[in-house]
């Protein structure tokens, strides 16, 4: 028998924290974290050079490495590093997570009712990215790093956090796409840099030290977990690697100065990434000059041997990983086999020294070897700094900024809280209390506001789940129609959750699960007022039926909006916040999932085979909603504040081959690129009646050479404008950096010929010549 509808009255007081967190310990309680060089317990440690924080890190690391035996060294090439008691060094667990708040996935983080029961859970990354707000990315990272240090001080977390995930969201079925900033290399790179800097940078400005250590993962071309029996796979396209998959990692290292990069399970050019010297020693350490350590994805060194059969013995597998540039194994494979590899002459002890030197240098930058952390810069942080009112409000604001308005017929939104006397709230995601709204890689949230709770804080509601579960095998249509037919408005909260898309769980279809579509359409038929469809998901959904149904007046995509997601959804629906999010990924029709093999890693379309390509940069087929799409309750117009050039001339050195032959592109290198750029100054005006934020997206359409992208994002900026207000937004475009393309061999080129810049309805044509 179906459950009767639940009547909910407005909530006048919203709890800020979980009841259990109200009785949290006072600051200073909990277990002290492990640290080396505790001279208060062992004064003899003062004589060790590595325990002297006044010396430079290289000197200290060299001293420590020289004091260790081979067995002791090997204890520090695995994530569960072993202590060296005779030198006053405790063991350390490297694996902690901080994807969108402190997560409990790794053993380095422990939530405990008697110590730290909860931490602020921000929206899943894909929704935060939809804000296109770099300042917001930074604010979230800074809040997370403060809670991380506070948890470390009470023994509840480590100092090394394996976040963010900056893989490209290549395929809408990927279960971990929700963890990423989306499908665009520029947006992903900007997110990575802002978040990494916010995690790592100290408040005293000391660039040689770290607040916590971030890690950009999973390097590289990794975006498939488990689809139709296929697991993480191989990839062999240099052009796609260099112009799509690598840029976010390059930004992480060069611009974000990240302390770590994690190599992935998959193979690139026939080699496992964690055993690929070209990618590790050659690119990360060589070209990009990583100042930090390279860590494997968990057990990927074991996978290299046991599953991929890349080497014939475990010693050879251990050797290829270390010799390729791996410093730390998340797992136990190296501690079990690398000593034998050294004894067989497959690995030199100097390579072990290199690995642990990078690991120890990171720990010294974190203050692990500086004695008691309570005497250091962040030693005063504790329970009082976790789940603060400010952080919880930031979580709500982040969700508000990311929510994307996809449809709004007749300005049916926002609803008026004074004119809506009864609101029907229907759907399996409306009152889910199992933390599915938070997304994967999460910890225990400070509070948890469901959409039903958030909406009930504005108006009286009547609720029914409408489905027996998220898969909606059985839609409870009659019961849902009954409450919808008498309500002034209907909100349907549908979509997916972590049982449909998550790590190790890729989707096969990109339609709404089960009978959700039937439920939505039937409810819309009997509704007497506005019908608002709220889609909670990590990836896009084929909702063409709802887009075309005039009875469904509005559609919102809310990602997985975090602990305050329900409040943020209600704020948008009732107009307390004017939506400004933009989709960070393309929404494809179901036919895409039926025709395109998820294991095909190629980005570019192929007209001979009918392959349509991937992401807005290369995809040539129909879409449900395009990358960058998003509506507002206001209207915004752009106009050029200053004229733009119509010709850009590339100066070539004397004797350049292109001076005597017909070239379609030239190398994007100095000195040719010096001063080759121009400003784009746009006046943006809010022509609506409500204050609101607007994201200015600048796209480039290059000449059709080297199978270049159809278009690509080259700049973006978010502005907030009062009604009728306007602001000049300035972008500086570097032709070689921003408008170049990658050729078939992976070389960056400036295409000659007609380029197009466009912002909204504005288009500007100009030629690049020699």
TrEMBL record:
Keyword Secreted set for record: yes
Gene Ontology molecular functions: xylan 1,4-beta-xylosidase activity
Keywords from the UniProt entry: Glycoprotein, Glycosidase, Hydrolase, Secreted, Signal
Signal peptide start-end: 1-28
Record GO cellular component, one term: extracellular region
GO biological process: xylan catabolic process
Pfam families xref list: Fn3-like, Glyco_hydro_3, Glyco_hydro_3_C
Subcellular location: Secreted
InterPro entries tied to this protein: BXL (IPR044993), Fn3-like (IPR026891), GH (IPR017853), Glyco_hydro_3_C (IPR002772), Glyco_hydro_3_C_sf (IPR036881), Glyco_hydro_3_N (IPR001764), Glyco_hydro_3_N_sf (IPR036962), Ig-like_fold (IPR013783)
Fibronectin type III-like domain location: 694-763
Name of the molecule in the record: Fibronectin type III-like domain-containing protein
